Structures are given as structure tokens and as C-alpha cells.
């Protein structure tokens, strides 16, 4: 397939899932901690027939999002759900996500909002974000956010439950194709 080297330069549509856990969404699936995948899925059980333990996930690579062992600009879509908040270097994580997304490609990302009421309950979360942070970071990397939304939940107190707090951020960003760049440019 030529994902790790410059071998195959064929233009095929592929999706990468970073932080796949045991619910892979991509043609290529990456997770640094395959045995600790219950956090993303909410399933606290880890049984003997767990797909990551039995290596049933197709095209699985054990790696961190900050150092993807992949060629640049090879994926039409990069999907990462509730992963960037675990990164100790979110700028490098996002830079790597953008590096492997091809010209005209799309990044689909979700993470907890910085004002989410449960944010302090998750000891593994080391960063929290808002839309402004992502707009600035993506713009710097040559991407534009084309869709975004926040999930909201009432404040967890009966007297002020009408106040809505942002819980999660969902966004889609697209690589801006520059002059002379094609959709599957592998420079």
C-alpha cells in the first residue's frame, strides 16, 4: 500500500482514524494504547476477545498522533474523536493530522470543550479547547473550518439548569488547495 514509504503514489480515497480504540472507522487505524481503549468507547470491560488484543482491526498501527509513521498527504479524510485532549503537545498532534491529509482533504475532529463540566473528572485529559483555538491552529496549517457545532447540556444544578454549558466540540476542516497544488499532491 505504500503508507509508510514513498513507494506507491497511486491516488486512492482513504480514511485514517487516529485514536481508534476498539471501534475503528478508517481504512488505516492508529492508537498508541490498544489495551486502554475503554476511555473512548465508555466500555470499561476488556475481555479476551477484544479486537485490538486479537489483532482483528484492519490495517492497525500502534503510534502516537504527534508522530505518525505515514507519508504526507495520503488521506482524503482524517478522523479523530476524543484524542487530542490526551496529547501533551496538541499543536504537534494537529500538525501531524494536517500533514497526512491530502490537498482538498478533510479533517473531522471532536473533543471536550474547555468549559465542559466533566473536564476535571477525566484525569487523562491534559488539554481543553474552544473553537477559537482550532480556528487559529487550522488557519496556520493551511486549513479552514467548514462546519462546527457544540453540544450543550443544562448546568448540573436544579436552580440554574436553564443555563447551557458547552460539552463537546465537533468540527470539520478542509485543506485549502494552493496554486499549483492538486488534490493528491505528495510533495
Descriptive report:
The chain has a single domain, classed as 3-Layer(aba) Sandwich (Rossmann fold). It is globular, with a radius of gyration of 18 Å. The protein is α/β, with parallel strands linked by helices and 187 residues long. It has a seven-stranded mixed β-sheet with strand order 3-2-1-4-5-7-6. Mean pLDDT is 78; it is low at 41-49 and 182-187. The chain is 13% helix and 28% strand. The protein has helices at residues 38-41, 90-99, 131-140; strands at residues 15-18, 28-30, 60-61, 75-81, 101-112, 143-154, 164-175. The chain is built from three helices and seven strands.
Largest pleated sheet:
7 strands, mixed
Outline type: globular
Residue share in helix: 10-25%
What is the CATH first-level class name? Answer: Alpha Beta
Order of helices and strands: EEHEEHEHEE
Provide a count of the helices: 3
Low-confidence stretches: 41-49, 182-187
What is the terminal separation in angstroms?
18 Å
Strand order of the largest sheet: 3-2-1-4-5-7-6
Mean pLDDT: 78
Give the count of structural domains.
Answer: 1
**Class from helix and strand fractions:** alpha/beta
Give the total of beta strands. 7
Might you state the CATH topology name? Rossmann fold
* Strand residue content: 25-35%
In CATH, the architecture is: 3-Layer(aba) Sandwich
- The gyration radius over C-alpha positions equals 18 Å
CATH superfamily caption: Vaccinia Virus protein VP39
Amino acid at each position: 500500500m505504500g503508507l509508510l514509504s514513498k513507494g506507491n503514489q497511486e491516488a486512492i480515497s482513504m480514511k485514517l482514524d487516529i485514536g481508534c480504540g476498539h471501534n475503528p472507522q478508517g481504512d488505516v487505524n492508529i492508537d498508541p494504547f490498544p489495551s486502554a481503549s475503554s476511555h473512548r468507547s465508555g466500555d470499561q470491560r476488556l475481555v479476551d476477545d477484544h479486537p485490538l488484543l486479537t489483532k482483528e482491526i484492519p490495517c492497525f498501527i500502534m503510534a502516537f498522533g504527534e508522530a505518525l509513521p505515514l507519508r504526507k498527504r495520503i488521506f482524503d479524510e482524517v478522523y479523530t474523536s476524543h484524542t487530542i485532549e490526551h496529547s501533551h503537545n496538541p499543536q504537534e498532534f494537529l500538525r501531524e493530522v494536517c500533514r497526512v491529509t491530502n490537498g482538498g482533504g478533510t479533517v473531522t475532529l471532536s473533543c471536550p470543550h474547555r468549559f465542559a463540566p466533566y473536564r476535571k473528572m477525566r484525569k487523562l485529559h491534559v488539554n481543553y479547547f474552544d473553537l477559537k483555538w482550532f480556528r487559529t491552529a487550522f488557519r496556520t496549517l493551511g486549513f479552514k473550518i467548514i462546519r462546527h457545532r457544540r453540544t450543550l447540556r443544562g448546568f448540573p444544578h436544579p436552580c440554574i439548569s436553564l443555563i447551557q454549558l458547552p460539552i463537546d466540540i465537533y468540527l470539520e476542516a478542509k485543506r485549502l488547495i494552493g496554486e499549483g497544488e492538486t488534490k493528491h499532491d505528495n510533495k
